[in-house]
UniProtKB/TrEMBL annotation:
Protein location: Membrane
Organism (species): Donghicola tyrosinivorans
Key word Cell inner membrane present: no
Chief place of localization: membrane
Membrane topology according to the record: Multi-pass membrane protein
Descriptive protein name: Phosphate transporter
């Protein structure tokens, strides 16, 4: 593409913007040093505690709420460090975003999602895992929620340290279940709900991986393996971007703006179809212009998927902030409700100051500790490019929509990482298939030795096993930790 008509002032503006992102990356690298990051994180936890003290003044349960606010801030930091990597990792791994750009976009959109569309009324604690009335007294309930909050935060912290992206939702569920059992016995737990969550351990990554693999297969068949790749891209990229836009419009309508407006699944699908058609029509001339002068090779195709991938990362972050901030502040809001009114059996809203702690904590956690997991998801499981990362992002949106329609409590973490696995394993299968086909056309060609086959694996098996193991033990580990902490906190506080 010719650069003769580019305004020099635009290049200067771009240079300044890139300079800002470079500065942000340097700052991120600086604060990522262990002691500095821990120090800033500790300051934020203290800030949350002081904020709670200022809000409650000299009320009877101020100390309890202050401690709970500190636990909630700690949990929010860990969600930012672990969970947000699933939204930004593919775009960073595909080089569509720098680490600094990813962090800047995620901070803005995670905070916007939490503060604008987050805080939907929590009718049951941790998705109905335990019956609050089984706790008996508000003191026992508050102790259980504090144990659950601290246990889930500690588990997510450990998972981030070993480099395993785990579900913060499942961590909170395990924490609440363990504290509920310690407080009121096994009968307090809704085992039907726990069974549905256990099923999601399998359904989420498999569905995410399958959808990502199917879209990658389509891209390879319809574009990459065609003789005229650019002509094929002009035909299909607007369609694919339209599908992505429609999926995210539906996703945001169903999951991202529940607080602002209630939209049925049917209406959300209609919104998505309308958005898909509109975006498809808009993208046709854009893709045609982008593709002018591009060489007929795979590398040229990456340009056409860059902007859709960045937009998808931003939208995933917005929806994540709207939904998963409750993992940090849901138990804290329950403690505030029980401490101020004594009522812990009915639905409750999340106060604004609690939402601010959650939003800021996620942003600080991402900025201070997020790069480690972003690199894991983006680079260290399998090699991603913009087409593969596009498939992962699209599968995340579609899988959440399908799960919501079916009423399944799926994990966004499992879906996104499952999508990365799906892309990687599909590439292995496709490479093996093409190799066998090529060898069949060469007389006397020798078969590839098993050692060579293992060397050519495109998914790192060590990371695969570490992540799957962390997924499997998240709920029981958080539950056991929470039960132990419940006993300790009850002993310290003297609650019955």
């Amino acid at each position: 593409m010719s650069n003769n008509n580019i305004d020099p002032s635009h290049l200067e503006t771009l240079d300044r913007d890139l300079g800002r992102l470079s500065t942000l990356e340097q700052a991120t690298s600086y604060v990522a040093r262990p002691m500095i990051g821990l120090g800033i994180g500790l300051i934020f936890v203290v800030f949350a505690a002081i904020l709670a003290a200022m809000v409650f003044g000299h009320a009877n349960n101020t100390l309890v709420v202050v401690i709970a606010a500190a636990f909630g801030a700690y949990m929010a930091l860990n969600i930012g460090a672990n969970d947000v990597a699933n939204n930004m990792g593919p775009a960073v791994g595909a080089n569509a975003l720098t680490m600094g750009g990813a962090i800047a976009i995620a901070v803005v959109f995670e905070s916007a999602g939490a503060l604008i569309a987050g805080g939907d009324v929590v009718s049951t604690i941790a998705k109905g895992i335990i019956a609050p009335e089984s706790m008996g007294t508000s003191g026992a309930f508050i102790t259980a929620m504090m144990a659950a909050l601290l246990a889930s935060a500690l588990w997510v912290n450990l998972a981030t340290w070993i480099g395993a992206p785990v579900s913060t939702t499942h961590s909170v569920v395990g924490g609440v279940m363990g504290a509920g059992i310690a407080a009121a016995g096994f009968s307090a737990v809704s085992w039907d709900k726990m069974g549905a969550i256990a099923a999601s351990w399998v359904i989420s990554p498999l569905l995410g991986g399958l959808i990502a693999a199917l879209f990658l297969w389509f891209i390879k068949s319809a574009i990459i393996y065609k003789e005229d790749k650019i002509a094929a891209a002009r035909r299909w990229v607007p369609v694919l971007v339209g599908i992505m836009g429609g999926a995210f419009a539906t996703y945001i309508a169903v999951k991202g703006i529940k607080k602002l407006i209630k939209i049925s699944m049917g209406d959300a699908v209609l919104i998505g179809i309308g958005a898909a058609i509109l975006i498809w029509l808009v993208m046709i001339p854009i893709v045609r212009k982008q593709s002018e002068g591009l060489e007929n090779r795979n590398k040229s195709l990456k340009v056409l998927f860059g902007i859709p991938l960045i937009v998808s990362a931003a939208l995933l972050s917005f929806a994540h902030g709207a939904n998963d901030v409750a993992n940090a502040v849901g138990p804290l809001a329950a403690i505030v409700q029980a401490s101020t009114t004594g009522d812990f059996t009915h639905s409750f809203g999340i106060p604004h100051w609690v939402m601010i702690i959650g939003a800021l904590g996620i942003s600080f956690g991402l900025f201070l500790f997020g790069p480690k997991l972003i690199k894991m998801v983006g680079n260290q499981i399998t090699k991603l490019n913009p087409m593969r990362a596009y498939c992962v992002a699209l599968s995340a949106a579609i899988t959440v929509i399908v799960a919501s329609w079916l009423g399944l409590p799926v994990s966004s973490t499992h879906i996104a990482v499952g999508g990365v696995f799906g892309v990687g394993f599909f590439r292995e299968w496709d490479t093996e298939r093409r190799m066998r086909k090529a060898m069949a056309t060469v007389p006397g060609a020798s078969r590839v030795a098993p050692e060579e086959r293992r060397r050519r694996k495109l998914v790192r098996r060590s990371h695969f096993m570490t992540i799957v193991a962390a997924w499997l033990i998240t709920v029981p580990a958080a539950a056991l930790l929470s039960a132990g902490l419940f006993a300790v906190i009850r002993g310290v506080m003297g609650t019955s």
